[in-house]
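Contributing new records

If you add data, match the layout below exactly. Sequence lines come first and carry their own label; structure lines follow with theirs. Keep one chain per record. Anything else will be rejected by the validation script.
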Amino acid sequence: LELTETVAMDDPVISLDILTRLRLRGFRLSIDDFGTGFSSMLALVRMPFSEVKVDKTFVMTSADSRESRLVIKAIIELAHSLNMQVAAEGIEDNAALELLRKMGCDQAQGYFIGRPMLPEAFIDWSKNTSEHIDLQRLKRLHGLGLLDSEPEHRYDRLTKLCTRLFDVEISLISLIDEDRQWIKSSQGFSQRQTERSVAFCNQTIAQEDIFVISDTLNDKHYAENIMVTSAPHIRFYAGCPIRARSGEKLGALCLKHSIPRTFTDKDKQLLKQLTEMVEEEIDYNPLLDEDKLTGLLNREAFERRAQKLLNIFVPYQASITMYYFDVNNYKRISHAHGISAGDEALIHFSRILTEIFTDTELISRLVDDEFVVLSVCEQSENKLEQLADAVKNYNANVSPHLNVEYTVGTASSRSMDNIDLQSLYMYADTDLYEHKSH
């Protein structure tokens, strides 16, 4: 039931009594035109509303008014902090829809989505709209070049993180094509594609939020699904829609397990954060994000991803390690044999790093002869030994003047009180120069 703020506050005592009774009977209550009256805060705190509607006055001026955007953002944050949903009205173009989506608004209405219509017209509108949305979605998906592409470490590291963080048997980055599910990255599942009709993620892209099935055998839509009745015998599923920058749902980051389980609000928040990291990889631009010489992440792209990892994992007190590398003889090689020879040494060192740190690590060339690896939830001590062996093997097979010499400094969250990116840099750099001095 929807009522305006003005009516709700006309007689607060009677309103509170009636609205509370309605909520107890299972009704959801939406406060309309929020922000246009004089008792907004009081109404939100005292009345048992489940949804706030942002008035169209703010929405229709949001493109040109910074003040309107700030008001909308404040309403969304306030409502969410009170465990309420937010709807926005007055959406008349895609720009407004995408702005509200990015702000975290839950629902939207307006002429851009649909005008008032008779019930019989709504059925056709709904069917045509769904088909149009899927065509636009497929056009966007096909334009990204992800379908039928080779596995990539930047996606695989995220599915590996999912299996460890959620302790599930299967995690997937699934892309929903016209009649198939293409699996860009997977852990615990060997197939690269399935029919769309049996894909759990096909239902996920129909949702605005995370889709969870705690026990598939208790769900009439999935109890007879071939993925349930035969291997891998899925009993639990959770998936979060993956969106393109322009808003289309491309697929899902999903978790699967052969044992039923619950999925908490904390779990949902973590899955959303990891999905945002998948979306950032989809937006990956080699011209902006890659180091031109080695193809590794450049400093800006590394720090953007590293900060998101820290935002997720520091609160969980996860093991975080930074390795800071300096190729000691790069300048000597360059001076003696030319810049191209020095660059060749850096290229080979970067390749060795990517061969050794193949799990959940972020790898970057920060500047000149300095490289960094950020490892989360990993036991990577033996990887330093593997790296030393790999470099030794490389040096044995190239001319002595191209031999790579390096020093590494380490920083671990286990020995730090305050964990942030700059502190990790500082500790690792200090350790690096202590090793150099010896």
